[in-house]
Specification:
heterodimer, A: mainly alpha, 77% helix, B: 350 residues, 11 strands
Chain lengths: 276, 350
Amino acid sequence: MRFKRYSVLPGFGLSLGYTVVYLSLIVLLPLSALVVKTSQLSWRQFVDAVTDPFALAAYRISFGASFVAAIANAGIGLLVAWVLVRYEFTGKRLIDAMVDLPFALPTAVAGITLASLYSANGWIGRLLTPMGIHVTETPLGIIIALTFIGLPFVVRTVQPVLQDLDPEVEEAAGSLGAGRWRTFRHVIFPEIFPALLTGFSLAFARAVGEYGSVIFIAGNRPMHTEIAPLLIVKKLDEYQYSSAAAIAVVMLAASFTLLLLISFIQRWSASGGLKP
Amino acid sequence: MNALRNVSFVGLLLITPLTVLVGCGDRNDSKKQTASSGEPVKILNVSYDPTRELYKQINELFAADWKTKNGPVVTIDQSHGGSGKQARAVIDGLQADVVTLGLANDIDALHEHGDLVAANWQERLPNNATPFDSTIVFIVRKGNPKNIKDWDDLAKDGISVIVPNPKTSGGARWAYLAAYGATLKKSGNDDAQARAYITRLYHNVPVLDSGARGSTVTFAKREVGDVLLGWENEAYLAQQEFGKDKFEIIYPPLSILAEPPVSVVDKVADKRGTRKVAEAYLAFLYTDAAQEVAAKNYYRPTVESVAKQYAGQFPKIDTFTVKEVFGGWQNAQKTHFADGGVFDQIYKPK
């Protein structure tokens, strides 16, 4: 392979060099340490550690709840972004700033707050419990916590794209006879879909790794409400460093595959896959 | 050749920040402290969660005592957290001169992983290296509306029990063993019966928090559950903090003798040259002064004279030790809390 001899932009070597350095130091080095730790296990031990019923249940809960939360965020986030871009109203700046709060709030604080709001005698829990809806100590609680921490990702990725979308394009679609739904489905949606997907995958990835806010609301019972990151912490507490690392490697591989898949869908849709 | 140049450039860039980073590493380790030279000494006591207030008070007393006897100023830094987590931090390199943890198993781990502590650590200090002990009690809501008196009551239908996860909390391991052991003793060592009991008990647990404080918050603040299982000292602390009018402490007729032990971390103390002061610090825990502080913080003193003095504060209950019922911590750990152990069986799908 040969590097390009001339480039319009100078400094390719320098910038690539630094990119490689920082990626290595900050991402690759810890990840390879993880793999090294895992390699202390024999293949048999590795398989046993990662296919243990508790581990399988934890993946199911972590990935399942994260997926549902990310879907919910894609919907709510799109709506929030839409409202913030398309309408003018008093307090808009305030709401805009509030969207970022889940980023800034320590996750433990979020978890404790949500847990006390939704517990049987909390403000919201008091209303839900008579209806037979139990949030705390159930998977629903996990989904709510993960939705909370993931919301800004979708809003912040979709918002700029919506902002750049020229209203004239919609007017043109309207004047050509497209109804509102058709305009949305065939004109607006294909434009924002790649950004929405990015937001979705960021929210999803964040949720898979989330620990702080979930453990306060989840109940943490093995097989029922135990998320994979908690299982890893538990393994560490038992000095089982290698099997903790093994579960982490599986989580990592699964997340990476999913993110890769999403980026393929994104490329496909950006190149006009969704357009009629 | 341009490609080659680019590659070596990248390589150079890789190396430069690395060397800088390495150069920034902590060099404090290489400076040995000598306890006898009259220079100020600093030691670190790595402890478990609820001992924060206790050691703060003891440390002040010890520093004053050390100064009058030996001269140099000694400062004791404290670090607190779940017992298992703290042990892991020490294994991972936290420079603890002494550890004062929630259960013997966590100090055994310091011996097993990295040989940080000598194998015979528990024989080096009186009373299995336990300066003060405690027990596991029930905390119920005022008036004891569900009439919870004994271990059997916890496994009844419709009772909600709050206790942390024994895999992550030392106190929860004591609570689990207290429940299991009490049933074992009552049923005449019928293991099957004890297992059935413990399974029913944990199916009454809606939340497994990771530590004692988490469970206290769940029970007291979020008002989840009918009964909280915990350290005796934590129970009194919770009562003080959340109001005596809200909770009652119930002593079961039989409970476990919880022994949170202490040890010098040999490898660290020898490396830092702090062995003398570290050993003196632990010996100080057995003095009347320290024992009294412990009693005031609701830990049961083990020194006879002080124990007698504070006898009125601690209701007398029958206790059993881990050694006599479970054959020691290592056994208990292997049978009950290790992967696939009895605790895992409780949750394993049939």
